[in-house]
Amino acid sequence: MKGLIILADGFEDVEAIATIDVLRRSKINVDVVTINKNLFVESAHNIVVKAEKEWKKVTEKDYDFLVIPGGRAVYSVWDQFAPLTNLINQFVSSQKLVAAICAGPALVGKLGHYHNHSYTCFPGSEKTIVGGQYLPKESVVRDGNFITAKAMAFTFEFSLAIIEFLQGKEQKEQVRRNIRGEL
Fold first, then answer.
1. What is the residue extent of each domain of the chain?
2. Any idea which architecture 2-102+152-176 has in CATH?
3. pLDDT tens readout for residues 76-107
4. How many Cα atoms are found within 13 Å in the side-chain-facing hemisphere of 83?
5. Average of pLDDT values for 149-175?
6. What is the signed CA dihedral for 72, 80, 157, 50, rounded to 10 degrees?
7. What sign results for the dihedral spanned by CA atoms 169, 175, 179, 183?
8. b/e sequence 66-101, b meaning 16+ C-beta within 10 Å
9. 121 φ/ψ angles, rounded to the nearest 5 degrees
10. Cβ distance 33 to 60 under 8 Å?
11. For 18-37, what is each residue's pLDDT tens digit?
């Protein structure tokens, strides 16, 4: 099981870092990828992290799922980055999990992939989404091979939903107890 999480300058700190942390606590291999050649990426709140791979070394066939965090990077970088559009289309056509949080669902939804699916996202981001049923009161929505989450405050629920999708409910509950200190 191997996932891909994409980071560009302006990514939402908690949505990316906490998701990586929680997934790795569940022994899920996650590659952190950026388009920045030096691999250093600055978050929305000026925290600099180092990704593990440069974008040009990524192919969909090497991964089982894709995670798209929100933040201003969604609209300032990813929205106009055609290779990401191609990658999302490949994941969807291969029926692989595509998980997006906050503004991230807009990248998937503008392509029409939520047609016949329910989703949630940061309020206002739904305006660019084509089709689907927007559930503004839901914190996390799983529908088919899509997981969406409303905002940063729901990052842990989002991460646990990914674990449940990939590893089952029992593993999700074990990780939930662990991160709450309920061992």
1. 2-102+152-176
2. 3-Layer(aba) Sandwich (3.40)
3. 999 999 999 999 999 999 999 999 999 999 99
4. 12
5. 98
6. -70
7. positive
8. bbbbbbebbbebbeebeebbebbeebbeeebbbbbb
9. -170, 175
10. no
11. 999 999 999 999 999 999 99
Determine the straight-line distance between the first and last CA of the chain, rounded to whole angstroms: 25
**Side chain identity at residue 175, one-letter code:** V
Residue from 162, 160, 179 nearest 2 by CA: 162
- Bridge-based pairing of strands 48-50 and 40-42 is antiparallel
Return the pLDDT at 183. 72
Q: What is the DSSP string of the chain?
A: -EEEEEE-TTB-HHHHHHHHHHHHHTT-EEEEEES-TT-EEEBTTS-EEE-SEEGGG--GGG-SEEEE--BTHHHHTGGG-HHHHHHHHHHHHTT-EEEEETTTHHHHHTTTTTTT-EE--STTGGGG--SSEE-TT-SEEEETTEEEESSGGGHHHHHHHHHHHHH-HHHHHHHHHHHTT--
Residues 6+ apart with CB under 8 A from 21: none
